[in-house]
Amino acid sequence: MFKHTIVKTPGKTYINGLTTSNLGAPKLEKALEQHKAYIEALKTCGTEVTVLESSDEFPDSTFVEDTAVLTPGFAVISNPGAASRNGEIRDMEPAIKSFYEKVYYIKAPGALDGGDILQIEDHFYIGISARTNQEGAQQLKEILESENYKATIVPLKKFFHLKTGIAYLGNQTIVVAGEFIDHPDFHSYKKIIVPPEEEYAANCIRVNGYVIIPAGYPETKQRIEEAGYQTLELDTSEFRKLDGGLSCLSLRF
Question: Structural domain boundaries of the chain?
Fold first, then answer.
């Protein structure tokens, strides 16, 4: 059960953020509208939303998930792997410390993005990607194990972040796409398989009584609902243009 969420309004420089997509430049006004709808969805799910002011210094800083890993008892401030994003943790640290007394840090040369971290009950999966390196993954693994969590490091083959292709919905059920459909680390879970043409929809988030999914992926929506979950659809077109998805836009705890 999530009580709190933290989000950050896109700044004027958002349109200059990092991307590997070829979907064109995002439209700031539309991104702001979509972000407001995202906040309303989090409220509908029953969370108290903390909205941080935008930061024009960091174009990608609306993707707050990459700055931290949060558990019920402690927080881990990450060390984002993109040089232009590393300073984002300065703005996030006070917000996180307003909720947490126990805070750990990923330290250089370790690099870690929160988008590479998936929690399934007491087990964390840590992706090694273009933004999370072995050193960062190992640091987090040691922190988690010292707090009596399990942790598994998962090297990625194709996906940008771990959670680009997998989500946990509770009840030992995962939503999976691409390389995670037959991945040995996830063989024991019940799977909702996302078809290749709807791969982006694998980045969905379970927030209390709802699964928030990106709009426009009817097959995935149907499969999630057939598994017994209530869905909320949101248009995320302007965040997809900068490699962003639903999980990227909030910290949930």
Answer: 4-252
| Catalytic residue list contains 248 | yes
161 catalytic residue (yes or no): yes
Q: Locate tokens 């248009």: which residue?
A: 235
pLDDT digits (tens, 9 = 90+) for 240-250: 999 999 999 99
CATH number listed for the domain at residues 4-252? 3.75.10.10
Vertex 172 angle, CA 183 and 123, to 5°: 70
In terms of residues, how long is the chain? 253
Structure confidence by residue, pLDDT tens digits, 5-17: 999 999 999 999 9
Backbone φ/ψ region at 19: left (φ over 0), alpha (ψ -120 to 50), beta: beta
| This prediction's pTM | 0.97
- Segment 207-227 mean pLDDT: 98
Residue 235: CB atoms within 10 Å? 15
Given 35, 45, 204, 248, which residue is catalytic?
A: 248
Choose, from 35, 45, 161, 204, the residue flagged as catalytic: 161
8-state DSSP, 228: T
